[in-house]
Amino acid sequence: MAKIADLIAAGPTLSFEFSAPRDPAGNERLERALERLARLRPSFMSVTYGAGGSTRGPTAEVVSRIQHGLHITGMPHLTCVAHTREEITTIIDRYRDDGIENLLVLHGDLPEGTVDVPTGHFHHAIDLAELVRQRGPFSVGVAAHPEGHPRASSREDDLAHHAAKLAAADFAITQFFFRVEHYERFVEELAKRGVRTPVIPGIMPPTNAEGVARMSAANATEFPDEIRTRLEKAGNDVAARREIGVDVATRLCEQLRRAGAPGVHLYTMNFAEASLGVVSALGLR
Ligand code: FAD
Fold this sequence. Notes:
This protein has 285 residues and is of the alpha/beta class. It is built from 11 helices and 9 strands. The chain has one domain (4-282): TIM Barrel (Alpha-Beta Barrel), CATH 3.20.20. It has a 9-stranded parallel β-sheet. Strand 6 (171-174), helix 7 and strand 7 (199-200) form a beta-alpha-beta unit. Helix 9 runs antiparallel to helix 10. Flavin-adenine dinucleotide binds at residues 48-49, 51, 77, 79, 106-109, 124-126, 143, 149, 151-152, 158, 161, 165, 173-175, 202.
């Protein structure tokens, strides 16, 4: 398989993100989405990791299936919250021994209401990036928050932490956003700080006003009124809402392509349809 840093260098990349499933029904849905999207031969596929325990287990298995079963480069997400150094080291070594060459290292968010979890050894994603480099020749990715991380004390502070983290990484993938200006400004701010690590935009086709509003509030991302109104007008018409999601995401991807983004990473939510629609509209495969 391939290192994502090399794929980006040969770019532009097309990738999909999946969530680790919670139960057998979720696993079946994931499997259907994986198979349909694998036919597009994306550059890579990534799988989330449930910080705090809920969906930690399946990540390694799903990534292994992507890489060894579907023959597509697989990238696990790895969060450091609530993990000891020994636990994290064991996980990284298992990935290395399974032939996994890429890791997205993160702090992680504990699910709301989580109690009684141990304090983890690592405090920030950058600490994890350093350990991963010591354990093997991985291509290391990190998360980026173009509109700022919700826990940041100030924009300036946040940009300084982002700059340090991206300088230690091979690439970054962003939180979802809906205006190209947020991405452009973020990349410019990093460049001013001497950081030119490729930043792959994470794009979520918005298909559900309530869900997007909740996620936007949690991540401090702007949910533009015009998109919310379009979705609300579509009501319970699932096909119409999907069409809006595909349209919004496609336009954004086109703007990002013109802005020089090194690829596009689609948040699938374990459904194939919207991603298939965006890829087809962009004429990517
Ligand atoms: P960090 O880089 O550690 O930053 C977190 C906060 O700490 C920021 O406010 C930052 O400014 C601040 N900070 C950073 N370094 C320092 C420092 N040295 N000193 C002081 N403050 C500092 N969550 C999951 O649980 N599982 C997943 O699989 C997952 N996948 C994701 C994938 C992508 C592409 C993205 C964008 C996010 C994902 N998340 C996931 C969510 C992510 O874990 C949260 O956004 C989390 O709150 C921050 O993670 P981070 O890696 O950016 O943290």
